[in-house]
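In this supplementary section we document a worked example of the pipeline. Step one takes a protein sequence of length 76 as its only input; no multiple sequence alignment statistics are reported here. Step two produces a three-dimensional model, which step three serialises into structure tokens for compact storage. The input and output of this example are shown verbatim.
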Amino acid sequence: MQTNENPAVLKVGTMVLDTRRDRVGEVMDASPSRVFLRAFGGGREWIASPEELEPVGVAEELRARVAEVNAARRGR
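The serialised model returned by step three reads:
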């Protein structure tokens, strides 16, 4: 994905798929050359190139949120 194709995808708070790592992350910050992502619900941030990111559909976003809630419950 090029940043000039769909800049709304890189908006802070948007959920995207990091295709290189096969992980869904929430955009925390973005520049033309890199995007800072974090798993929904927290965790360590990682950096991805905008070209490695794809928008996620509703199902993928929901799956990521449910996985995070389940992980939090297991940690209790």
